[in-house]
Each structure stands twice: as structure tokens, then as C-alpha cells.
Amino acid sequence: KWTSGMDCFHENDYHVSRRIYSNRVFDQVHERQAQEIQSLRERLGRACGCTDKWAVQKIKGLLPILDWLPKYPVKQWLPGDVVSGVTTGLVCCLQGVAYALLASVAPVYGLYSAFFPILTYFVLGTSRHISVGPFPVTCLMVGSVVLTLAPDEHFLRPVNITGVNETVTDERLMEVDGEAREAQRILVACTMTVLVGLFQVAMGLMQVGFLVRYLSDPLVGGFTTAAAFHVFISQIKTIVSVPIHNHNGFFSFAYTLIDVSRNINQTNIADLIAGLLTIFIVMAVKEINTKFQHKIPVPIPIEVIVTVIASAVSHVMDLNSQYGASIVHSLPRGFAPPQIPNIALIGKILGSSFSTAVVGYAVAVSVAKVYAAKHDYTVDGNQELIAFGVSNIFGGCFSSFVASTALSRTAVQESTGGKSQVAGIISALMVMIVILALGPFLQPLQKSVLAGIVIANLKGMFMQISEVPVLWRQNKIDCLIWIATCLASIVLGLDVGLLAGLVFEMGTVVVRTQFPSCATLGNVPNTDIYKNMKDYKNVRCENYKLQRYVVHNRFWQSICKSQTFCEIFWNAFKKKNYFDHRPFMTPHPGLSHICCPSQNGLVPVASLGVENQAFEKEQVPELDEGASQPDSEVKVQVDWTSELPVSVSVPTVHIHSLVVDFSAVSFLDVVAAKSLKLVVKEFIRIGVSVYIAGCDGEMVRRMEALSFFDEEVTRDILFLSVHDAILFIQLETSTGNDEDPLAEKVKLTF
Fold first, then answer.
1. Spatial distance between the Cα atoms of 546 and 690, rounded to a whole number of angstroms
2. How do residues 534-552 score in pLDDT, each as one tens digit?
3. What residues form DSSP beta bridges with 746?
4. Residue 338: pLDDT above 70?
5. What is the distance between the alpha carbons of residues 193 and 109, in angstroms, rounded to a whole number?
6. Is the pTM of this model over 0.70?
7. Mind telling me which residue stretches traverse the membrane in this protein (predicted)?
8. Separation CA 388–CA 357 (nearest Å)
9. H or E element: which one contains 189?
10. Least confident stretch, 89-103, 490-504, 512-526, 615-629
11. Helix 52-62 vs helix 381-396: angle between axes, to the nearest 10 degrees?
């Protein structure tokens, strides 16, 4: 039958001739090997066993520099790394000073944050191209914690009024103790940075770098766009240079805008003009760099140029004294001494530190993988966790705040010829030169210029909004995740917003797994191809039914609880009109007692059954008075081929076999196996044979471990493919005997 159409050959046709295989027959013919089960002690001994080769491999994995530095091609890579390092170093200096404003600490600590993390990443990192240092989103998250734990109100002191002969303290006038405030704020920032590093190292050692996969691209896109919005709002006050209160938490952006609008009449015109000019010039030149990137050998370092010119203008015109412009003021030479984190603060910053650790790592590893794919090398996610964790611990002990990477800075390092982290170490040397010698030259620089540089670098994150219409056309669920995460992060704050976005994303997964798609498959004549009958006209389905459940990996463990699994099975048959389902009861949970409606308790109804409201009750003759009444619950074993003692419409079952395609199922738990087994037995009870096709070896082993098979449900119901199951059914039907037709040597050609 299956070879009848083979007279018409086509050059692209292929023909297969093999036996019909059930899993049992296939295992026998090809001699399935039993898996070796090792005890926990054996596995630990094998994992902890140490050989010279294993030790060298582990050391190189922990210290990647030992692997790549001896192979470093000096002549080919060093010139490009030097040019890239010098250019990136200048950008690092300016971005470090600017992003310190987001972290609410003095600008000099931004230089430290652009220097110390690079030293350790050079030794431990696996990415050759990312530029390690401050990132606007993590800086803002640090700044929100700093402002919460060290607000200006905690450092107010009476004003000292100096008279002719004495100094008088006026308790009615208060001023902020700037030195005490800065000391406490950098202590909070450093403590949080060390804690972030500890979280990252712990996750790296536990090999949980895969957790970043739960931060999908839509979620990260919505979160970073919301973070860019918060950064923009936070820098408005610096651009217009008006006094406002510090706000954090829910609707903080609204309170900030209200404060700015109330004090807008106090705007400093010099700062406003400088900030707006900086935004316009930096964005315009960056557009030129992007448009002519193939013609310009090195991108124009516009941030450096603008900063140098702005510092010179501010110094010459004395904008601070003449116009009241807000400037950097103190940018001392040299490094601050190392300091120990404040252990007492850990309990207050635990949650914020963990979310910052996850965000910083997620952004960094995403950027690293983009350039790794572009230049054909691999990035180890777990080692990146350790590298960034150690970098943050080391930097936090030297007055730095959280380090990650910035896409714009990394793009500069790669586009200017950077080939390895040698470019990174050279950029660190440039930052060190600024710290040791050139820092005081930046003291006249207006803070509004730094704020303008920050805002101009947000363009890339704001442009992610253009992805929303594309996401809506491609996948509406992903689009909703993007929008929900963005709105939650804007309204609730970055920490709570990220958590809300994760919960919403996981909720969409749960909802989608609760409503799997079900398709009835038909056979394309003379082939082993089975497709959805709704999609194709020339497919057929004879006296058997094929069910394919297109589900997610955790379908069987998420839906096979209580009545749900059985309801899905029965409802699928109802919709497809396989047979008259009215006399059946919906099992609970998985137990279906064949029950009949009655009057006056003639035929008992099992209390475990849930009555199907769709069928009409039929009248049953009453018994004579005095007749004995049956017990309240009786399990009725029905022989569907014999006459029933009561007037019940017996359904006509139009199928004799059901094939379930399990190729899309990859996980089975205890509840799922129990429910599936009960459903299979229900079909066997009414004379419908059930076969399961497409189970891989791991799924079969899982079924065996869960005691899925017994005398009634045997391993003979498992087949390698849907087509094997269909051919077996046809062979069994044609032979008309109860013996296994595969016991004979059968060979069909199709």
C-alpha cells in the first residue's frame, strides 16, 4: 500500500526500507547498553580527582591571561592596541568623572572607578574587547542607595557667623557639612561595590552564569530604557543647576520634575547654556562618527575636546565667581588610601546590591558576546562573573563604585583597532596619568558639561524604543514584557521595577504553558510525513487518531495536577468529535469511575466524579418498593461489549487507536507520569489502544524510574516515530491476532 505511488519518481525523491521499530524491538536489535550509575561518592571522587593536565587546565581557566598572553602577536596587534588604549583612556577619564555624578559621589572617585577594575579584569577576564568601568545604569542604582542612606538632611550643622571680634554659631541657620557627607557617601558606595563583587564571585563559583538567560532581550531592553529615562531626569537638575530634594522609590521621577519646575526661576543661565551646547555638539559629532566610520580611521574623541575647551573657558572667564556656575572644584592628585567596607550597612543594601550585581553582569556579558561573535572567539559566562566580582571587590576597597561596561566606550575601543585587553591596560595607564598629574586641570569644569556628556551618551538606550513596533509585529508577548518592564522600572524604581519585570516575564511563561496547542495529524499519502489536518487538504487520517501537543519543556509538570491533565485530553477529543462523550465523567484527579445518572439512588454515582454538565440526564425505571438499595459508592467495571442492566446510551467509539507524539516533550515528573498512566488505562478500558511516539532515551529512562510501566501499560506502547506506530497499527489490524506482529521479521517499504 505504501509503495503504490513509487512508479512516479522524482529526482528529489528518496526511499527508505527498514523494519517497523517499537522501542522494545529497537533496543533488542541494536543491543541497548545500560547506563552506568555512579554513586555520589564516586562522582565526587571523579570530580575532585587531580592530574597535571587537569590542574593546568583549571589554572588557565581561572587565570585566562596565562593562556592568551604567551600567544599574543606583538607585531600584528600591539600598534592597534596602543592607539585604541590611548583613545579609550581619554574617554574613560571623562565618562568616569561624569558618571560619578550619577553615583552621587565626588568626581575623583569616578576616575578611580575607571582605573582599578581594569587591572584585575586584565588578568581574569575572557573578553578581548569590552572596556571595563562605570556604566550609567549601575551608577544610578548605586546613587539611589547612596542618597537613601546618606541624604543631605543627615549632615546639617549650624552656620558659623564670623564677627569683628568673635565667631558666633547661629542655631537657626543650617548648612550641609560637605566633608562628612562625601566621606559617608563614598563609604556607602564602596561597601555596596564590595557586596556586589561578593555576589558575583559567589555566582561564578556556583556556576550559575546561565541565570542571565532569564533576563531576556525584551526585559533588558525595557529595563535599560527606563534606566536611561531615570538618568535623564536626574541630570536635568544639574543642567539647569537648581536646588531640589533627593527622591527615591515610587514615582521619584515625578517628584524630581515637580521640584525642578518649582525652582525653575533659580536656573543658572551659564550652566544651562553650557549643558545644552554640550548635548548638541556631542550628539552631532557622534552622528558624524557613525555615518563616516568607514572613512574616519579613528573616531573623533568629542567628549575630550568639549571637556578641554569647557575647562579652559570656565577658567579664563571665572564662571564660578562671576556667574555662580557649579564646577567640579576639588579633583586632587593621587590615590585615596584603601578602606574597609562598613559591615553595619550590609543589611540595608543587600537587595539593591544583588539586583545591581545581576544587571551589571547581564549588560557586560551581553556586550562581550556581541563582540566575541563578531571576532570569532568565545566568552566564558561563569569566568566573567568571577572577573567582574573580583574587580568590584578590589575596586571597592580603593574607593571605586560598581564597574561593568558601557557600549559606547567598548565601541570606541573596538573601532579604533583594539584587539585584546592590552588596549584596556593602556587605557588604565592614561587614567592613571590623569589621576596623578592632570586632575587639577579639570577643576574649573562645569558640572553641567559633565551632565550634558551623560545625556548625549543615552541616545543609544533611548533608541531602543524603536524596537517596540517591531516586537509587536514579531511577538506580542515579548512586546508586552518590554513595555511592562519599562513602565514598572520608571514608576516603581529600578530595583523593584526589575523584579516586577522578571515576575511578569515568568508569568507569561506560566500562562503559555497552561494553554498548550493541540493538533490532529494526518498522513501525507505514501510518505512518513504527518501534518496538521487543518493546514493541509491532502492529508488523511483513517481509523486512528494522532495527537501532537506542542508545549514547552515543563508542560507535563505544570499542567498534570488535579483534573487539568485529564480535562485537556478529554476536551481535545470533544472538540475533534472523536466520539460521543456525554456518558463520561471528568476524572478527578485522573480517576474516572464510569457513572450513570439515576433517580432515587438506583444507580450510585461515585463521589469522586465531577459530572459533565454537557449531557442530558436520561430517565431510568424505578425499582419496586422494598428493593434493596446499593451502597453509596461502587466502582463499576463495565464490559462495553455486553448489554448493560440499565438504560444508558453507550457511545459509539469511532477509533481503535490513538498515537500521541511526544517529540516536543522533554520532561516528565511524578504527577505527570501518574496522570498520563491513568488516562492511558481509561482508553484501554474502552477499547482504544494508545501508543506514544518520539520519546528519547532520557524520557524512557524517566518513565521507567517513575514506575510508569506495569502489566497493563507496557513498554510496547513506545515507538521510535509516529510512522512506526501507524504502520504497526495497520499491520496489527490486518493480521487480526493478539500476538505482537513485530515478533516476526517484517519489512515494509515506503
1. 10
2. 887 777 665 455 555 444 3
3. none
4. yes
5. 13
6. no
7. 97-124, 131-150, 186-212, 219-244, 264-285, 349-373, 385-408, 420-442, 448-472, 479-504
8. 9
9. helix 178-205
10. 615-629
11. 60
